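Much of what follows relies on a compact textual record of a protein's fold. A complete example follows; check for yourself that the lines match position by position.
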Amino acid sequence: MSNKTKKQLSRRNFLAIGGAVAGTAAIAGVSYSLLNPTNQAQSGSEPERLVSKNGALGISLVAAMTSKVINGKTAKVMTYNGTSPGPTWVAKPGDVITVDFTNNLGDSTNLHTHGLHVSPEGNSDNPFIEVKDGETFTYKYQIPENHKEGTFWYHPHHHGMAAPQVFAGLYGAIIIENDETPKVEEDRVVIISDISIASDGNVAGANMMSKMMGREGEVLLVNGQVQPVMEPKMWSVERWRIINSCTSRNLDLALTGAKAMVLGIDGNKYSQPRDLKRVTIAPGNRVDLLVTVTDKEASLTYTTVPHPDAMGMMGSATEYKDYPLVKFQPSKAAASIASLAPMSFVQPDLRSLPVSAKRTFKLWMPSMNNMMDMMSTGLEGHFTINGKPFDGTRIDTSSAANSVEEWTLVNESTMDHPFHLHVWDQQLVSVPNRLIQEVEYQDVVNIPAKSKVVVRVQFSDYAGMSVYHCHILDHEDLGMMGIINVI
């Protein structure tokens, strides 16, 4: 590993422990209450779409601090091109996406194209790149000719800064379209996030407990808005691309007033769409719905998913039950007929292939019972995979290109951990309390507390270094991440 790479990978010593944890407060500093939405409904909107043309998509992207009104209060948040979420990138298989990325945040950052199957090296989806304040860096992503259609997203991944920067507003959607993209009346991006604003208008920081449990903001947002209202066409069929861009929050979602089918998760389609009852998606997950609008108002609702180890002290003091995140009030406009093309992109069933290696990854963090023991030493070094916190100069796993491996993901802690592997999707083999029969792939796989999940991974198409980590981003920043080198 070069000295330059070692320098890029060096951990930032950014955590300040501060004083003792008191009561149930989860967010550092004094914050004004944003828990109750204003009475005036916001007209729902989506981020700007930047669409490729003639095989290329060129983007100028600027990360900067911007004043934005959130639920009637002016806040200083982080934005891409002045908005949060940032613009949606729309491309096709075979396209080249070029991003001239300028960092005006006042601190280092970078970009991760979450879920895209692209190279992890050079100026592609390389998590080891550091773009310092005031610098411009050009990313270039070559989308493979055979890339699946689906919903992906981008966000910062500079180690030590991922959680605060995503929490402050840095995220955006990526859409890959092909001939199998459903023809629908409306194709909607629904990015769900949360945030807390301190009394001075800045995004609230995090204390020891909120880092430990994963920070959950006081305000729930859809496309940067509080409980927006959309106006679909009556009796139309729409596609909803739902992205969980929350730093730590699991989303238990349901739909009232309309019918929906689940097309797939994390850009991976099911062999047949499944009826939606409820669906829980972890931080980083995406779920694609095919929704039939009726003549009634519909709502996408959220219910709190409690942490087993929270001891009544969640990252957010508010618990939600069927809270309407976004409402859909049908108009009387005539609707067109939707159509679904047959699937031609089929991921291989790795369960039928020989494996070159079987590995075990043990994820561990302290329990709440250890909180007082850590007051003097802090949290760094206590969040580990296989007993080791992240070290940017150490390769943790070496795998052969094009090989198939079986990974047993063991959660030794008393809190769920969503496990994300960059570049290469994970096929589910075994999960608690459910028999896996079909071929199911995800790029974020939730590992329940004190449990384990078995997956298989095929390291196809690309070689190079990347990472795997917990997608509770505070846990990633605290060390629950490892480096993989595919050779």
In short: The longest helix spans residues 3-9. Residues 1-39, 312-316 have pLDDT under 50 and may be disordered.
